[in-house]
What does this fold into?
Amino acid sequence: MSQPRFMPALNPATAGGDLPVTEYLALAAATGYEWIELDSRQAPQLFALGAQRASQLLREHRLRIASFFLPVNWRGEDARFEQELEPFAALVPFFAALGVDRCCTYLFPNQPTTPEESRRRIGRRFHSVDRILARSGLRFGLEFLGPAHFLLDPGCTFLYWMQDMLAFAESISPNVGILVDSLHWHCQGADRAALASIPKGRIIYAHIDDAPPGPLSAQRDDDRLLPGEGVIDLAGFIQSLTAAGYAGPIGIEIDGPYLRQEPPERAARRARSAWDALFSRPELAA
It folds into this structure.
């Protein structure tokens, strides 16, 4: 039996983000996942367990790590950034040995400096991060944020549009690409053609979620629904990812209060069931 083109990955924002990493792995395995994401807190926790124990846990739970979020404070002072690169350089080969090939972070559209200075400063720091990742064979994904309320934050607008983030990623290194989230794509107009036209290999990772009805200008980043419960053109999203050549895990990221009051196991199972229902649709069924 051939492996499906896309596989669901549990994202800690959906369920289990407050658990110790060992319990998070157990939660994912118990609720039907074969892939997980780790956030910037969980990644160092797993590293602290050591290579032998981490590998054993992943084997026991039959799990693979789709991606981990960058555990380096690249937004702060230069000294702190440089200080955090050293432990990061030790952490990356550890994850490479576990079969991980992606690391991601996100950028707020507005930055405290001018666009020109932001491009120089962030680009220089991401180049340093990417050099470390590339040495171990990992790629680096940059996530753009689509909800318009981010444009009201203090500072100067640096990068907002998907295509601008892609161009910025390409300016850093061929090893850098973008993370595409269905909510952010939706908030920028859900342009199927623009997503489908991204060159193969430039989409490093993807997230899936849904949004309630309403004007795009009013959509909040923390107001998300499970896939299939809202108004996002998820069939178009998946078909466009396919056209762009992306294949692999997709993180189910339901950030915000929607699932937060539920027990982690119920939240994780609901997310998995929503994925299965979405991919049973005739236009997406394998």
